Amino acid sequence: MTIIDLTRPFSNEPLFRLDAADVPLVSDATRYAGVIYQLHLDSMCSTYIDLPGHIRETDNGLTAENVPPERFFRMPARVVHLSRQSGSGAVTGAELAVGHDGLKTECLVVNALGKRNATDIAERTLWLDNSAIDWILSTGCRVLISDISESRRLEGVFQRLFKAGVSPICLPVNLFELKDSATVTALFCPVPKMTQIPCRVIAEV
Fold it and tell me: Quick one: which of 97, 143, 152, 159 has the fewest CB in 10 Å?
């Protein structure tokens, strides 16, 4: 078994900032400095997961605190590989379905960019159109991991996914390293009220 980390590094300041401070800890037996941290974190930092409540109109009450962690633990996943270029427009359901007709899966991974990541192309110049969302929903997936999503004009991708109870994981990396199937786990802190939160995503292949 090989583990592939699909998590984008925490390198996008100012969405992420970390301040550290030493705390002296002294007793008759020992003396040392503990290090504590103040973490300043945007919910779209690194790779992150959206629960349906990320849009007010589709809020189903699930938050990072109360969503069952087993929902995202060792999910059977199927992977769709494309190799589209920056600025090449909509990805269709017909493209996604090639070689995957009748696909049913708990987690669907869409690798539209080949060996590139989402930050390597002009933002939102490659997107999922309505037929692509139709096909994605036909798979019965509960989690969508994709390196593309909305267009600049807003197609309603997230609203349709959330209405169907699908949680997308955004800005993953290294999707090209996956084979046609994998076992995927997404982990995040149980922060109260949050419906969008950075997560660690790993795949077993």
Answer: 152
What is the pLDDT at residue 101? 77
Q: Name residue 79's beta-bridge partners.
A: 109
Distance CA 43, CA 25 (A): 33
* pTM for the predicted model, two decimal places: 0.94
From CA 68, how far away is CA 115, in angstroms rounded? 32
**Best CA proximity match to 148, nearest among 121, 130, 176, 185:** 121
Examine the pLDDT at 16 and tell me if it is beyond 90: no
Buried b (16+ CB within 10 A) or exposed e, 110-135: bbbbeebbbeebeeeebbbbebbbeb
Residue 51 · residue 167 · CB < 8 Å: yes
The alpha carbon of 161 is separated from its chain's Cα centroid by a whole number of angstroms, namely 13
Q: Which two tokens mark 185?
A: 């786990």
Three-state DSSP at 15 gives: coil
Which pLDDT value is given to residue 50? 98
Lay out the sheet containing 200-204: strands in order across. Answer: 3-5, 200-204, 181-187, 75-81, 107-111, 143-146, 167-170, 48-50, 196-198
